[in-house]
Amino acid sequence: MARASLAEQYRATRRLSEALVAPLSDADASLQSMEDASPAKWHLAHTTWFWETFVLREHAPGYHLPHPDWQFLFNSYYEAEGARISRAARGLLSRPTLAEVLDWRAHVDAAIAPLFGDPALADLMALGIAHEQQHIELLLTDIKHALFQNPLGPAMWPDLPSRLPEGPGVGKAAALGWHHHPGGVVGIGHEGAGFAFDNEGPRHRVLLEPFALADRLVTNGEWEQFIADGGYADPRLWLADGWAWVQREQVGAPLYWREDRHFTHQGWQPRDPNAPVTHISHFEADAFATWAGARLPTEFEWEAIAANHDPAGGNQLDGAAPVLPAGSPGLFGDCWQFTRSAYLPYPGFRVAAGAVGEYNGKFMSGQVVLRGASCATVRGHSRATYRNFFYPHQRWQFTGLRLAKDA
Ligand SMILES: [Fe+2]
Fold it and tell me: What digits encode the pLDDT tens for the residues 384-403?
């Protein structure tokens, strides 16, 4: 099938953002449960701000900003675009209303449509689409965290059946197998045609020692064994920062676990022991790997194996519906996978000129790289070279674990 045109990708992405908020009230869509998470309404507005600021304002002569004072509300972190509301205060915006934000989106969509004919704007359009796809994933994980705060455990999609009875993860998880790699000098990073974020390049050489990477993710059932074996109470398994975090936060299970249930977009549901474990921190992933006699892969080992897998395969987001890891073949889908690699610039990396240069490079401090794609990642968004990144204590994303070992 021919790849969809940029204009078609734009429309599909914008429609999906809006379909995800269809089950939400204005109050739901305005909730902010923590500083790391943003209200669903803010995601809808911020992605629109991005299109208006970097495409329409710069490249649509005569475009009139319908709400100039909203710039202050919906700039995320772009210093070059001036002052903005503090991140922790995004949940205090009862106005503009959800309906007003949706009207603004329609206004911007109409103004953008004629610009897809300009090939000079293709790279910027691809960046805007990828940006909104990233916010679709954040919208899903942020609203899950927000609804989780409600003692009644409301479901975002109460009328849809739970996927648990028919999901491919139900049944026995496959025995763990390994992808073996002989080591050697490998090429890492993006080059050539097709969109990629700046942090995926330049392509460069990396020396790998022989290693093996697990052929599936760690499951809920395996994580239950780790808990039963006292994994959260044994400091020998933990990085020092991780042990301090476990004690300070009184952590004893993945986020959203309660007894044999877990919180999902469909409220509290039974937990499938054969499905991949998710909502774990880097600290937890590292401790589990140590307990299992294995380790986390480096991001380079992961990419060397992933180069032979379909990045659009597995359990990824195809539409506005509940999402849950189920157990995919291949390297992509279900959960983002922790690596032991710090998020750092590749040799020769240069921050792009202009405000868009603030997109990735300035976050290369203190974070770890995750690879793959999750059940909340828009299918087609990720690549073998894609670098996701979070702080090691964070676990409200669909984060999981694939073991590695030295050969
Ligand atoms: Fe953003």
Answer: 999 999 999 999 999 999 99
- In whole angstroms, what is the distance from residue 303 CA to residue 331 CA? 10
47: CA distance to ligand 1 center in Å?
Answer: 6
**Beta-strand relationship, 261-264 and 404-406:** unpaired
pTM of the model: 0.96
Q: What is the DSSP letter of 253?
A: S
The encoded tokens of residue 351 equal 């921050």
CB within 8 A of 31, min separation 6: which ones?
39, 40, 91, 143, 146, 147, 149
Neighbours of ion ligand 1 (CB under 5 A): 76
| Contact (Cβ atoms closer than 8 angstroms) between residue 288 and residue 401 | yes
Q: Is 57 helix (H, G, I), strand (E, B) or coil?
A: helix
Measured in Å, residue 331 CA sits from the centre of ligand 1 at 26
Rounded distance from Cα 131 to ligand 1 centre (Å): 6
pLDDT tens digit string along 215-231? 999 999 999 999 999 99
Nearest to 126 by CA among 17, 51, 45: 51
